[in-house]
Design brief:
The protein is of the alpha+beta class. It has 2 domains: 2-7 and 65-149, PH-domain like; 8-61. It contains 3 helices and 7 strands, in the order βααββββββα. It has helices spanning 7-31, 40-61, 133-149, and strands at residues 2-5, 66-72, 75-81, 86-92, 96-105, 111-119, 124-130. The protein has a 4-stranded antiparallel sheet with strand order 1-2-3-4.
Amino acid sequence: MTIRNTIAVWGWLICSAFLFGCAVMSWLLLNERVPDGTSPALLGAFNLALWVVGMFAAHRVFAKPVTVLRCHAEGITVDSYWLWKNARAYHAKDSIRETRIQESEDSEGAPYFTASVVLNNGTTILLAEGHSRELCEQAVNKLDRALHNA
């Protein structure tokens, strides 16, 4: 049984597109004439502000991994993938404290759900997340069934 949490890819793509836009704007500022009536300093400050926002977003977004959880007879294997590295962790069945679904709000106030596994050492592994509670419930139920049947 395998559960994949690939929501991070969307953030990676959106942030990459934003940074690409910042790079295009920088190229234009360096290679094209500034329109009459426009302050070059103001355009440069605006471009710098976009880069600061982009770097802050990149720091947060690219730190989130894609997670693949595999359940087997002895416990679970968690593979985490970032753009620059991969990590694998093994956890025995008896190290799993609970599976849970948490509800919060996104930036627009809409309900946002996260399904996770909590280990005895306090580590939380995200199974699924999104605006659909059913998606999170399916992930938790799938893991619970696999753990009890293995």
